[in-house]
Amino acid sequence: MNVTVGMAAEARITVTEADTAAALGSGTAPVLATPRMTALMEQAAWQAIAPGLDGGQSSVGVALSITHDAPTPVGMEVRARAEVTAVNGRKISFSVQAFDARGPIGQGVHDRVVIGEDKFVAKCYAKLEG
User: Fold this and answer.
1) Which residue of 15, 38, 56, 116 is 20 to 30 Å from 122, comparing CA positions?
2) Catalytic residue among 10, 16, 17, 42
3) Alpha carbon distance 127, 26 (integer Å)
4) Per-10-residue mean pLDDT for the chain, 130 residues long?
5) Nearest partner of 34 among 45, 44, 21, 22, judged by Cα
6) CA-to-CA distance for 36 and 61, rounded, in angstroms?
7) Active site includes 42?
């Protein structure tokens, strides 16, 4: 693993009806849902560190503390940015922000843990065995 402070990435979407609070069940408003903004932030975070991971490694989110500060309408682009702020063994911390065409819409911090994907998935699915 070669993940360092300062690694960063962005993820983008154009908000559709499927991305709204009404569609995702987090409210009734036809605006970008907080869970969708959260997912975009997580996408930017894992993409930021993906180049530094070894074969068979992945990462999973373990903590997220954000604010959703402004609504975004259907049809507008949203951009999330994540930057590594700390590396503590397998735990990676990020600063995350989200923006639409009018400015900032959300911000916060996010932690991910680097995993061996095969072992992680096997352990998860072992729960079904009994």
Assistant:
1) 38
2) 42
3) 29
4) 98 98 97 98 98 97 98 98 98 98 98 97 94
5) 21
6) 15
7) yes
Q: For tokens 């609070």, name the residue.
A: 21
Cβ-contact 129, 102 below 8 angstroms = no
With 0-12 CB in 10 A as exposed, 13-18 as middle and 19+ as buried, what is 54?
exposed
Active site residue 68: yes
The answer to whether residue 34 is catalytic is: yes
pLDDT at 100: 98
Catalytic residue (one of 20, 68, 72, 83)? 68
In total, the chain counts a number of residues equal to 130
